[in-house]
Each structure stands twice: as C-alpha cells, then as structure tokens.
Amino acid sequence: MRSTRISFPTSDDVLLSGSLDLPEGKPRAHALFANCFSCSSQSHAARRIGQALAQHGIATLRFDFTGLGASDGAFADSHFVANIEDLKAAVRATAGPIPLLLVGHSLGGAAAIAAANEIPSVRAIATLGAPFDPAHALRHFGYALAEIERNGAGEVQIGDQERERRKAMLRRSRKRPTAIGGTIVHAGVTSKL
To answer: CATH number of the domain at 2-133, please?
Structure first.
C-alpha cells in the first residue's frame, strides 16, 4: 500500500487537499472518506480506514473539507451543503468508471448520505456515528448560537481552537440527508437488532 498527496479544485475554485491510499496493483473500487465536522484527513481513524480499504484493493481518498487541514478556503464559510459539494469535487477528481464507496464519520457520514443521490457511481455507503440531522453539530456551538443569529457571525470553541462561524452556516447546516434507494440499517454496539 502506498499513499500520495492530492489536490483538486471545487466548483468554486477552492483548492482541496488530501491523501490517496492506493492498493498494490489495480484498484477494484474507489472509496471516498468524509471526515467529521472539524476533523482532518490525517486523523488516526481516517488513516487507518484508508489503509485498511487499500489492503483490500480499494483506492481511498481522504480529503480535508473547505477550510480544514491542508485545504484552502475559510472554515467560517464551510457548511453542510458545502461539504456535499466538496464530496462531489473529490469524485470528479478521482473516481473513474469503477464502483464507488462513500465512507463518512459523523457529519461527514451525513454529507455522504446526502451526496450519494447526486453521484451516479455510488454503489454503497458506510457511516460511523452519522447523525440523522446534520444540525446536530450546532449543539456544539452553545452560547455562540445566539451571537451568530444576532450578529451574523461569532466565535465558537471547536476542540482546542476558537473558530469563526457565520449565520449562513446555520441555515445551510439544517439540510437533512436523503438516502439513495435500498435500506440503511444502523445498529449500535449494544443493539439487540
């Protein structure tokens, strides 16, 4: 397995960056890994998932959404709908005529579900802790929600960093994902399903 850095533009000409984990030999499929709300393509989970898929013959692109990690753009301008557009840009940059698997963690999983309807090559989606309602991420903003609604922008604590968020992000993060045909079953570790 080898990993190579890759950059590609969005439809708004924001340059996104990521890592493409390649299997030995010709890939039998492509996967796209969508990170959590404020995570990077270089997180331990993203790297391990990309490497495991590559060991099974699946070329996996782990990329940073707009304003995160090594990608250009302002995090303040990112939102759920923009994450969907970033996913579609990643597909245009890497996927060929072979089947595509979308893998997403948390809000990235919700974006993968929502984007799947707009990506004809998607054959499967796998999510880890994806919320039904992407607005769930807004609960992390706490007191800053009122400030953002009132002033149009505000600082929120995300992990160990203060980051600016804008009012448009609130509205655009309330889009609900719609699954593609088929059945989605979610069972937790303690589920009796």
So the answer is: 3.40.50.1820
